[in-house]
Amino acid sequence: MKHDPKPWLFLEEYRGDVFTGEWPTLPEVFTITARRFPDRPCFTCYDPEAFSLTFREAEEKIHSTAAYLLKKGLKKGETVALTGKNSPEWAVAYLSIHFAGGVVVPIDYQLKNDETAYLIQRSRARFLFVDEEKYDALNPEKLKLDDRVALWNTKPNYIFDIEKAPMPEHPMPASEDLAAILFTSGTTGTSKGVMLSHRNFVSDCYLAQGNMNLSPTDVFYAMVGLHHSYSMLAVFIESFSVGAEVVFAKRIAIQQILKDMKQGKITMFLSVPMLFNKIIKAL
């Protein structure tokens, strides 16, 4: 099938309603998709048990979490740290920060606790979304955080237990505003924070689609950590921009990967050569 050289032209239907700039922001992209495909599956995982959210359900949880952050005092442009395994909870947390007007600081979950704490403090994050194993170690008082939200249901203040609530009126990000600070691996010295705007992410997302065929019926597989710039854009953002489903891999285990791919009927498996080589070797 021949690809559409300008697959983003449908956005014109929403200009003046959902967005006004040259490109929509990330929350505006998700809002548009939730209008187009409210009942299609959005965020899915199969480990430890099957769980899935439609775009409508995901939007409700994102709005409620954003409302929680705003109620706690998050202001536009302030940073929020996010560290955890790939999961629907991670996805909801990421987007809720943007919907609240904040800046996401995604941190590699494989880092040691002291390294994670250093990056949280260095980014001046006011809030932290964190997965199960690091929840107790990353203490809000010690890190001078306003609050800590769990990405796993065995911990208190679990993200999906936040009471459903509408977002209050508040300043939303503009296309040129800072969206995320991505820390490099620091292989040549201290990790550096790469500052990317909503325009950076969204324009790359749609322009890339001019060179490939993507469909709302596609199912992406998120195996590389979503703090990674490639996985964040090519898998996570690309998937929800077209109304496709994304299946999250919480762990890199060959049997679980094969199970996920079969059960989820994966059509888009984008990764890095190192991980493909590991899978081939394991097979």
What is the fold's blueprint, element by element?
Blueprint: H1 26-36, E1 41-45, E2 51-54, H2 55-71, E3 79-83, H3 88-99, E4 103-106, H4 113-122, E5 127-130, H5 132-135, H6 140-143, E6 147-150, E7 178-183, E8 193-197, H7 198-208, E9 219-222, H8 229-242, E10 245-248, H9 254-264, H10 273-282
Parallel strand pairs: 1-10, 3-4, 3-5, 5-6, 9-10
Antiparallel strand pairs: 1-2, 7-8
Helix pairs in contact: 1-8, 2-3, 7-8
Short description:
It is built from ten helices and ten strands.
Features:
single chain; 283 residues; alpha/beta; 4-stranded mixed beta sheet; 4-stranded parallel beta sheet; 10 helices; 10 strands; 16% strand; globular
Report on this model:
There is one protein chain. Helix 2 packs across helix 3. The chain contains ten helices and ten strands. The protein is globular. The longest helix is centred in the first third of the chain and has 17 residues, at 55-71. It has helices spanning 26-36, 55-71, 88-99, 113-122, 132-135, 140-143, 198-208, 229-242, 254-264, 273-282; strands spanning 41-45, 51-54, 79-83, 103-106, 127-130, 147-150, 178-183, 193-197, 219-222, 245-248. A four-stranded mixed sheet has the order 2-1-10-9, with helices on both faces. It is α/β, with parallel strands linked by helices and 283 residues long. Helices cover 37% and strands 16% of the residues.
